[in-house]
Amino acid sequence: MKGLGSRVFLKILKVTGISVGTLLVLLFVLPFLFPKTIAGKVKQWVNSSITSELDFSKANLSFFTHFPALTLTLEDVHLKGSAPFSKETLLSAEGVSFGIDLFSVFSKSVKVDQVYLSGARVNIRVDENGNANYNVYKSTGNSADTSSSEVGVQIEKIVIRNTRLNYVDMSVPFSMEAVNLNYTGKGDLAKAVFDLSSRLSADSFSLAYDHNTYVNNKQLKAKLITVINTKSLSLVFKDNRIRINKLPMHFSGHFDFLAHGYEMDLNVDSRRTDLVNIITAIPPDMSGWLRETKVKGSTVFNMRLRGRYDAGTNTMPDLRFNLSINDGYIKHKEATAPLEGLDMALRVRLPGLNQDSLKIVLDTFHFKLAKGFCDIRFHSLGLERPDIESEVKADLDLNTWDKAMGLKGVEFGGLYKLDLKAKGIFSRGQNPDNWRREIVITSIPSFSLVSTLSNGYLKFDSLPVPVQDISFNIRSSCADNNYRHTVLDISDINFAILKNYFRGNIKVTNPAAPDIDADISGRFHLGDLAKSFPMEDLLLDGDLVVGIKSKGVYDSERKSFPLTVAHASVKDGKLKTGYYPRPVERINLNIDVTNNDGAPANTTIEIRPLNFEFDGEPFTLTASLINPDDIRYNVDAKGILDLGKLYQVFGVPEYKASGWLRAALVLKGKQSDAMAGRYHLLDNSGTIELKDIQLGMQAFPKPLVINTGTFRFHQDRMSFDDLRASYDSMDFTMNGYFRNVIEYALTDQGVLKGSVSLTSDYIDLNRFTAFESVNDNLEVAGTDSAGTGVIVVPANLDVSLAAAVKRADFDSLAIHNFKGQVVLRQGKVQLQQTAMTVAGATFNLDGSYEPLTPNKALFDLKIKADSFSIERAYEEISMFRELASSASGVKGLVALDYELSGRLDPSMQPVMPSIKGKGVINLKKVKLKGFRMMNAVSKSTNLTDLADPPLSGINIKTSIKNNIINVDRVKLRIAGFRPRFEGQISLDGDLNIKGRVGLPPFGIFGIPFTISGNSEHPVVKLKRDKDGKILQEKEDIEEGEEEIPEVLPAGATQQQL
User: Fold this and answer.
1) Residues 6+ apart with CB under 8 A from 1036
2) Which pLDDT score is estimated for 131?
3) Contact, 858 vs 829, CB < 8 A?
4) How far is Cα of residue 269 from the mean position of the Cα atoms in its chain?
5) Which CA distances in Å does 514 have to 439, 494, 742?
6) Scanning 105, 701, 756, 942, which has the fewest C-beta atoms within 10 Å of its C-beta?
7) How far apart are CA 717 and CA 738, in angstroms?
8) Is 859 within 8 Å of 797 (Cβ atoms)?
9) Alpha-carbon span 145 to 180, nearest angstrom
10) C-alpha radius of gyration, the chain, whole number
11) pLDDT tens-digit profile of 273-318?
12) Is the predicted pLDDT of residue 915 greater than 60, yes or no?
């Protein structure tokens, strides 16, 4: 029996061994038997299921890649994104593997139940309109029959290894990046509702929202359980634990996908954790600092995002954030005393993610440092127009604080004290003194500030020389919300670098008319600054000396000037920045400002001289200016200034300046001599050559660009020939001269006089309107982006223009071949002997245009036209349609001699009740067709000859006032009939016409008629009515003086402000 048992056991082992060996052989051989079949089926399924382009180098089939699963691996995979990112890569990977059910290989449908991704780069993009690059799967529709599919997907496991994920959503905007991401997810994804169990980690994780980075290059680990409902498209975060660096957090809530947006309730909280843990999670990386610093204390934070997101209705969820720190302690290893007793209680509320509803409540921020302390309380509501209440008190030894915090790269020292109280609203708005858009501070919190520093010290570790003896004593306050009432007193100002120093005192009250008391002195070798301050890409050299003593009130209206003795000089200066390869060098400047008695007349400014060299071109300016009320000037300028390159030197991103000027100029004289015509006492000569120079004027929304031009000065005259200029892509050529240029340039009262001939191929007058768009980030309430407001004329011009313009556009009116004299004087425009072609006819025009405000203007015109097509005028001239609405049924030639005056609204359209006028319209040769008024008379009298009659040689005399056109008696002859009519037509189209149709042969007997109703539906009655129904006049009731439209930040509303 024993031998029989042994033989049976050996036989079983033998059979088992053969079976296992056979199975291993099959496991090895099967992938080689069916690779093309399986790879082909999967590839066929992929290509038929996506809208983008998939490419891979080869496909391998193996049991051993992810044993024991049969695995199809695609190597060197590249997948393009969906439109509009079809040319960009969505996924590139060393390998993408699909786990395949072995038994399904022998069936009609191959079942894929596992996905493996390794060595991949995943770039997910969503544009501003919400279009995503991952929508690569074709929609099969709800009724599609999937029973015959050759590949079935029933994912139960997803594994991602060594992958870099980059996600950018510009519609939010939101971005996220994970480096060396590893992820394992398990769940039956084929079910309608299933639990997805996930584990993930990343060596580096970053997250940003609205261009602000909240997590930067931190280690991430997470264990997540998410309930996914594929029918309702909802996610429930049931049990989720996350760790960012050392900070543990709990994450819960739900996220539902809606037809138009999302519904969410997301909670993140740390519960109670060590302060050091939260420090590891916030930007930037502080691991090195933590190794040398002892940190204690506890902290709790939580954040909740709750509500609906719907971009279509601008609905956003609410955000809440709370952070508290208790008994915090920080001490670097080199510190003599710790920062201790650190307590903070912070609450942030952002309803609807609306920045103007942002509420920040910092009830407590306190710490002690040796014998010093810091206490802060801060409340604010809103962001664009914050309502602030704050109180700050501090008394710190900066060196003790520096050592306690273990700050790297810089060393502080000095005794600093701060006492600040502030309450009120900070706001910006339109400058009330400027009708054009100009944003200024309109309100500040009332405040009191005392800030002092003594024995201050600053040294950067990378630089050899410290800034020493730093001190200041600042006392400032504003009792109300008007910044003009701010008092600023800075005394004991001092700092020194080597032998260089700056010291002094400044006191200023009432910034609107500043009362100044200043005593400042300083001496610097500018090259020494680089020994104390980081000045990357900035090179300074030369010797600077400053000395200013000034005491008194500066008020130009009351003709007051501070007693002043001021001097500044630069010797052998040099300036080079990283924005331009060559320096401004050989800079020398001596400037003195003096006033000995407080009267502006005794103010003297002396520049002796300013000279420098830039890009191999020298420039020199010597100037003397005496008495701002009656300027005596002596200016000598010579050289080239390349403004485009100079702006590059200073790297000013807000301005794109260009152009250059070449000066060889001597100006000497007195303002009053020029105004009185004593030109023999002036000595002005020389030239200024300009190229691509921008000149801004308040009256015009955009700058005038002088493309090329040379100005020649002689006495009070500045003449120019073939000056080529442009304004917003419109080109001009000008010749002529200006006078009184010095006074115009140096004073607000100066009037520029001159005579200029101007030629242009095209001018669009609409671009000169007061609030024409200037392409900035501001909007004017009540205006549209196309620009509104009337055309404003500078009041300080007295210039005659002999204009010749091939085409000009005004509103919808096209003007051709404009010629005539245009006089700009005292803010008005006068048209003298002008001629133009409109609607194919020549019109002669005299008149005036006067803007009263940026939203209102007056006009007064005399118009003559010998012959023009009334049909074409009706189609092309909007004012003609308004004044002669019944002319729609008239064809032929007419002549016009008319006077019109009235008011224009902010769209440069006439206000009808304001129009007054009188004149004659001559019907030279016309044909009435479909003229409702005459056809109605014809129908009522049964006189068919009156319907659509031809007319010639008829004068129609009318006058206009209070929205009514009064028509004097008009006599006609039509086929033996002698009709006549007279009466009223309102500019709204209402009729009050009475008339008579004289019967042949002599019109002695006739049929009386009256016409009422309106021009569209006239009502004719065959009766005599002496006065008819008198039409109601409308007087021009002007609204009160227009308010300047308030300028708002782009996207803001009046309620938000």
Assistant:
1) 902, 903, 911, 913, 914, 962
2) 86
3) no
4) 37
5) 21, 24, 27
6) 942
7) 6
8) no
9) 40
10) 42
11) 899 988 888 777 777 888 899 999 999 999 999 999 887 888 999 9
12) yes
Rounded Cα gap, residues 423 and 389, in angstroms: 4
Alpha-carbon dihedral angle through residues 930, 933, 937, 939, given to the nearest 10 degrees: 40
Return left, alpha or beta for 652; rule: phi > 0 is left, psi -120 to 50 is alpha, else beta. Answer: beta
Which amino acid belongs to residue 640?
I
CB 759 within 8 A of CB 722: no
> N- to C-terminal Cα distance for the chain?
103
pLDDT tens column, 866-876: 888 888 887 77
Question: Which pairs count as long-range contacts for 475-482, CB under 8 Å and 24+ apart, including other chains?
Answer: 475/449, 475/450, 476/447, 476/448, 476/449, 477/447, 477/448, 477/449, 478/444, 478/445, 478/446, 478/447, 479/446, 480/446, 481/424, 481/425, 481/443, 481/444, 481/445, 481/446, 482/443, 482/444
The Cα–Cα gap between 476 and 447 comes to 8
Ramachandran sector of residue 990 (left: φ over 0; alpha: ψ -120 to 50; beta: rest) = beta
Cα-based angle 869, 997, 931 (whole degrees, multiple of 5) = 30
677: Cβ–Cβ under 8 A, 6 or more apart, which residues? none
Residues 6+ apart with CB under 8 A from 757: 734, 735, 736, 801, 802, 803, 804
Cα distance between residue 219 and residue 215, in whole Å = 10
Whether cis (ω within 30° of 0) applies to the bond prior to 628 is no
Q: What is the mean pLDDT of residues 23-47?
A: 54
- Which among 919, 911, 918 is positioned nearest to 1034, based on CA atoms? 911
Look at 185-189, 751-755, 999-1003 and tell me which has the smallest mean pLDDT.
999-1003
Query: Residue 350 in 3-state DSSP?
Result: strand
- Enumerate the H helices of 719-776 as residue ranges: 741-746
According to the model, what pLDDT value does residue 441 have? 87
Task: Specify the pLDDT at position 235.
Answer: 87
Distance (Å) of CA 646 to CA 519, 643, 746: 32, 5, 23
What pLDDT does 267 receive? 93
| Beta strands at 234-244 and 752-764: parallel, antiparallel or unpaired | unpaired
The one-letter amino acid code at 922 reads: N
| Separation between Cα atoms, residue 352 and residue 320, nearest integer Å | 11
Phi, psi (degrees; rounded to nearest 5) at 285: -70, 120
Q: What is the DSSP string of 637-689?
A: EEEEEEHHHHHHHHT-TT-----EEEEEEEEEEEHHHHHHT-GGG---EEEEE
**Chain position carrying tokens 């992929």:** 46
Which of 143, 75, 151, 69 is closest to 107 using CA atoms? 151
Q: Output the six-digit token pair for 422.
A: 């502030």
Distance CA 263, CA 390 (A): 36
For 707-732, letters b (16+ CB in 10 Å) and e give: bebebbbebbbbbbeebebebeebeb
| Rounded Cα–Cα distance for residues 204 and 216 (Å) | 8
Residues ≥6 apart with Cβ < 8 Å to 509:
486, 487, 488, 515
